[in-house]
Amino acid sequence: MPVAAPIVQVRELTKVFRQGEINVTALHRINLEIAAGEFLTLMGPSGSGKSTLLHIIAGIDRPTSGDCIVQERNIGALNESELADWRNQNVGFVFQTFNLIPVLSAFENVELPLLLTQLSARDRRRQVTTALELVGLSDRMKHLPRQLSGGQEQRVAIARALVTDPQLIVADEPTGNLDSHSAADVLDILRRLSRDARKTVIMVTHDPKAAAYGTRSIHLEKGELTN
Amino acid sequence: MTVSGFIIKNAFRNKRRAALCVLSVAMSLFLLVTLLVVLNEFTNPPEDAGASLRIAVRNKVSLANPLPVRQRAVIEKMAGIDGVTALTFFGGKYKNDENTFFAQFAMDPEKLTAVFGEAKMPADQLAAWIKDRTSVIVGYDTAQRYQLKIGDKFPLVGQIYPVDLDLTIAGIYRGTTDDRNVFFHQKYLDELLGDPGTVGMWWVKARSAEEVPGLIDRINAAFANTSAEVLAETERAFQMGFISMWANIKILIGSICSVVVFALVLVTASTMSMAVRERLRELSVLKALGFRRHELFAFILAESFGLAVVGLLLGGGGAWLLYNSLSASALTGGLFATLTVTPRILGTAALVATGLGVVSSLAPAWSIMRLSVVEGLKTLD
Question: On chain B, which terminus has fewer CB atoms closer than 10 Å, C or N?
């Protein structure tokens, strides 16, 4: 059960994909509330709709029907440009495959979202340095992604997600490409963000051990919540 | 990091491909500039200061038909004339040199200053030439090419006329737009040909530019309905008529230019498409981070435009440096006296490069603008 006022409210949310002549229902009338500071894990088999739900909450996909209200804004009603601004200010993304820009250093990758803000170069430097310190990579700032281990790359990705100080962090199987030791490091960082910095973390995972780091876990099956 | 720094890093992430793309753009623009320069030389031959006052008079039937010598007296009597000279194209070979690149003309030496005043040489050389009917004056470029000096023999083997000329160099001139030509006495040619009583053309110098149109009319009228009707025209018009004998050279070169530009667009568009295609996921991530469609479009446009501009600097700038620093005559084996990269030609190349940058980025930019973040992330997952 939520422990504080909900930051995310999903109401009767349905998502239908069209594949050729066939309509595939990925999410069916989902209702969900996520409290601020919660570390929610989304579990379920492949194709159950957990990533789709995460994408809609993060504002990179749109529902077919229903509402998705995040921080009191119905993000389904925002146009492309408003949604882009909203994502930049309110959402941090962590992907399974890290998705760092290979030609940019760790510092530059983390700085990337800040190029869209009005911050001065000095302020950007300060924020990037803080974010990299938070994930324990202040000594790897000038390294290119190929010079980092998988765990370090994912930590850079977390720093990039944090650097704009968003309330919501979404992570799509962030430990899927990591060894158990690195995975534990990454999960620990996410847990600390939720617990200490009061960030709301929503994580998709197949791994029950990873799910155990969350404060709440929900299961999806065939596009519907099962608990 | 700045946005421009980010774009530059992206543009050169695959250095070999970027270098090959820039080189192909540079080579193509170099070729384009070269073709435009050649076209310009064909269609806008250089003129010297006296060109606006000179009238070329040729046989109305064709340039190959001679004119009777008796016409000289008629033309000379006309008001507003500074000078008249015969000018007969000899078309021979220098010492049987198959690649003789300079033109040879017979003329009236004493009229050189009046009609072709731009040809400068020391007075004693001019006087020596006028005095000796078997002497010749040689353009500076030709003298340089064959290491000639005053007093050297200058034999010309006839190709059009059945005579050979045994000439001696009396002077070396310079200052005209084509310092390759050589001039000798019309009387010497007449003598060798058995005094046929004909010349190739008349070249007339008017006293002022205002006199030119009236003089042209009077010259044409004077020989109308005679056995040797003439066509008098300005030097410019004569040159253009001469150029028209190159048939559709303008269309030919224009067509090659179009093909070059078209190929250039395909090469750059292909490079940009590949560059964007391999970064679909990254561009989707940028979208997820909050970059908007028009910002991504600007990134791709700037990258494509940047490659085209670097190509322009190398290709267009290279052509400008090359043609301005080397002798056109030496470079083209004497085909062109000058090869000038005009500001207009550089402007055209810049316009092509700009268009190239924009056009080649349109398709990849459009596909990125339409691509959803989720699709982009899935594409390469």
Answer: C
